[in-house]
């Protein structure tokens, strides 16, 4: 019994540090199936991501680990570089910051004056179903209301679900599998 409690405590500590799914819930809830509980938790985490994206976007802030630091339409390239360094790569007008170990990936684009004008949030690659991969258009409509407009992106056949937020536009890009591939926050 002591060994089982130690294992459960170790799992709880590991989950706390990684922000993962509460493993001890499964050990203490024999009547719930592990798969059902995990799926429910993943859906809740995806919903939290959706609501966080929308909430931060209303302030022009980038969702994620540095959400309170960068504001679209205000933050300069120099401020971004001083805070998180230079990008991993540059493609066209976008500077890419690659995520790792559960951290999200981002693309930043700046205007001619070097002011942040658009951020693309790609979520994480690991356990993707707990963030963007778990967000569906039905979930967006249920929790955010119907988008202001949609647009089919030629060449990729993706659907862009656009919410106008005053000074900002929040765009959820839906891929062919009907999940969100990435989210754009753009200064109007």
UniProtKB/TrEMBL annotation:
InterPro entries the UniProt entry points to: DUF4309
Range of residues in the leader sequence: 1-27
UniProt KW keywords: Signal
Name of the molecule in the record: DUF4309 domain-containing protein
Taxonomic source organism: Priestia endophytica DSM 13796
């Amino acid at each position: 019994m002591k060994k089982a409690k130690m294992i459960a405590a170790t799992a709880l500590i590991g989950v706390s540090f990684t922000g993962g799914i509460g493993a001890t819930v499964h050990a203490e809830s024999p009547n719930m199936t592990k798969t059902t509980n995990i799926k429910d938790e993943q859906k809740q985490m995806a919903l939290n991501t959706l609501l966080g994206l929308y909430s931060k976007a209303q302030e022009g802030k980038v969702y994620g680990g540095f959400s309170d630091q960068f504001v679209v339409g205000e933050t300069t390239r120099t401020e971004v570089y001083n805070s998180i360094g230079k990008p991993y790569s540059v493609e066209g007008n976008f500077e890419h910051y690659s995520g790792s170990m559960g951290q999200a990936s981002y693309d930043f684009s700046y205007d001619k004056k070097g002011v942040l004008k658009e951020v693309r949030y790609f979520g994480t690659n690991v356990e993707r179903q707990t963030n963007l991969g778990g967000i569906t258009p039905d979930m967006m409509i249920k929790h955010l209301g119907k988008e202001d407009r949609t647009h089919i992106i030629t060449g990729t056949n993706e659907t862009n679900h656009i919410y106008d937020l005053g000074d900002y536009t929040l765009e959820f890009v839906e891929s062919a599998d009907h999940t969100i591939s990435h989210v754009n926050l753009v200064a109007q």
